[in-house]
Amino acid sequence: MDYFGLLPEGCVSDIISFSSPKDAAISSAISRGFKSASESDTIWEKFLPSDFQHIISKSDSQLLFSSKKVLYFCLCDSPLLIDGGKLSFFLDKKTGKKCFMVAARELAISWGVDTPWYWEWISHSESRFSEVAHLKGVSWLDIRGKIETQILSKRTKYVAYLVFKLAEGHEGLEIANAYVRFVNRESEKEAEERASVVSLVEQKVKRRIKRNVKHPRKRVDGWMEIEMGIFFNETGEDGDVEARLMEIKRLHGKGGLIVQGMEFRPE
């Protein structure tokens, strides 16, 4: 007997609302009673960010959806460009937490503005943004990205990533330093002292892996990402968070880096 089906739908909805989006999607297979409740707009609106309508209004794209559940998975699977293409917004499918990628054009890149012999701005068929930054050649590599904690999900641990590709013939990208800091709480000098060592080049020979060096991994969208640091967003009242990648001590040639942006998403 389907005992769950005997429960009032409102009771079932309350039960599901305390679960996760993943559990809600699975629960529809338990019984007909759960299926009906787990499809309701009431449930899926609770899984959407409280400001989802405001975020959607900042996009030039028109979203068509037949239910809040359809909207939820649309925002998980299809990043939405907002703020005139400066930011990309999507949801973490398991938790419904907010994720953002800051476009390369919004990053502070040393020698990246009006210096086409160092960096050039090009279109890329696999980028969600209209432009990416292509490093032609520098000796001083310094890339920074900021995001307001106010727009992130509260009480959430976030990870900052540089999202990039390597051009054929890339050079000088084996070692760099990276950190994440709250701008109003920690100085650049303090953050530099605890910066982690990263590499933008994949480590293909395991026996040569250096200790304490983070290496990039390939994403499902075909790009690479390197972890830059972790921070906890408590109430969204900590101002800006800055993520920085730099190699400013070994002044050898560096080239072949293609930057799509910096992504901030839950751990």
Automatic annotation (TrEMBL):
InterPro entries: F-box-like_dom_sf, PP2-like. Transmembrane segments: none annotated. It holds the Pfam family PP2. It comes from the Eukaryota. This is F-box protein At2g02240. It comes from Nicotiana tabacum (Common tobacco). The gene is LOC107814943.
